Amino acid sequence: MKEPLNNKMLEHEIESDEDDLYEHYKFTASTGQDPLRVDKFLMNFIENATRNKIQQAIKAGNVLVNDVAVKSNHKVKPFDVVRVVLAHPPHENLLVAEDIPIDIVYEDDDVMVVNKPAGMVVHPGHGNYSGTLVNGLIHHIENLPTNSNERPGLVHRIDKDTSGLLVVAKTEHAMSHLSNQFYDRTTERLYYALVWGNVEGEEGTIEGNIGRSLKNRLQMSVFPDGEHGKHAVTHYKVLERFSYVTLVQCKLETGRTHQIRAHFKYIGHTLFNDERYGGNAVLKGTTFTKYKQFVDNCFKVLPRQALHAKTLGFEHPTTGEFMRFNSEIPEDIVQCIEKWRTYTVNQKE
Questions:
Q1: Is 92 in contact with 124 (CB distance < 8 Å)?
Q2: Disulfide check for 145: which of 175, 176, 203, 240 has CB 3.0–4.6 Å away?
Q3: Is the pLDDT of residue 5 over 50?
Q4: pLDDT tens digits, residue range 268-305?
């Protein structure tokens, strides 16, 4: 799926008189789509555009349903294909090399392993067209191979506010070899997550298809009946319990968008301070003002979802050696855990 565009992109198109149009992204309405105005439909997808800007783009003839320009009140129905076409290529195709510091854990002629900080976007999109990891990578390495989405070097990705390890392919062979490993599920990926609630049991497996939410397109949902989404499996084990939150280690068997975030929300244990999935509210605990202040302080220490890609293992595409890398838990997560650890000890005294 293409990345959302922002207001400036819409505005640029409206003011343009060029004839050539480029598809910026395309959405296919799901089987469960109720009839919905196309402007409201697009609002569910476009994170950084106002409804007014969308309506202007529609008025300019830049929104097509089944390849026909439509008006704002056109109703989108199941299986309709909605496209947004603009007079300039997508910004992610206009990559500019930037001298951005990259925490390189390992590098040779074939691969690079980087430790991405929280807050850094992996590739351009969602209104972030500079300052991304990819902008830094193309400055650091010339002629990076592109993946199937035309993104240089990327074999996989992690969310903006998730920290941790990523492997980058530096050659076409490495790209193909590593991509096959992710597809065949032979890589090793371990995450640490702090989740709301006291997770039942010491270990377990969460299984359920993951796909775009039918109600909020910025979220992913779990579809246990298998009617929507793609097969997803997350294994977990409890590392430590802190009264109303639990530190867990997650092992990914599959790698779907927001997999850990969606799976744990599904079982009633939303990630701590995960704003998009509702984890930035007090979901477990007491109603005392002092407790709420404590949680707010934890949110300030860790102003993002408590998720870190700690371990990454893969077979080297040239030597065949299985390589495993570990990263330190970032200071913001460490400080948050320490606060909960102290709180739990005081509760028992």
A1: yes
A2: 175
A3: no
A4: 999 999 999 999 999 999 999 999 999 999 999 999 99
Which residues, in sequence order, are bridge partners of residue 167?
A: 113
- Please give the pLDDT value at position 147: 84
Contact 248, 206 (CB under 8 A): no
Least Cα distance to 327 among 235, 195, 190, 193 occurs for 190
In the structure encoding, which two tokens stand for residue 137, read together? Answer: 């990578």
pLDDT digits (tens, 9 = 90+) for 310-340: 999 999 999 999 999 999 999 999 999 999 9
Residues 6+ apart with CB under 8 A from 257: 210, 220
Q: What is the pTM of this model?
A: 0.77
> What length does the chain have?
349
For β-strands 163-169 and 307-315, DSSP reports them as parallel
Q: Which of the residues 159, 161, 274, 332 is marked catalytic?
A: 159
202, pLDDT greater than 50: yes
In which element (H, E) is residue 280 found?
A: none
| Cα–Cα distance measured from residue 345 to residue 349, given in angstroms and rounded to the nearest whole number | 7
3-state secondary structure of 304: coil
Query: Computed over its alpha carbons, how large is the radius of gyration of the chain?
Result: 22
pLDDT at position 45 = 79
- Strand intervals (E) in 197-244: 203-207, 209-212, 220-223, 233-242
235 near 193, Cβ under 8 Å?
A: no
Count of Cβ atoms closer than 10 Å to residue 91 Cβ: 21
Q: Is 159 a catalytic residue?
A: yes
Cα(49)–Cα(42) distance, rounded to whole angstroms? 9
Copy the structure tokens of residue 312. Answer: 């990454």
Of the candidates 125, 9, 127, 1, the residue with the CA atom closest to the CA atom of residue 60: 9
Q: Tokens standing for 107?
A: 């590098």
Greater model confidence, 45 or 296: 296
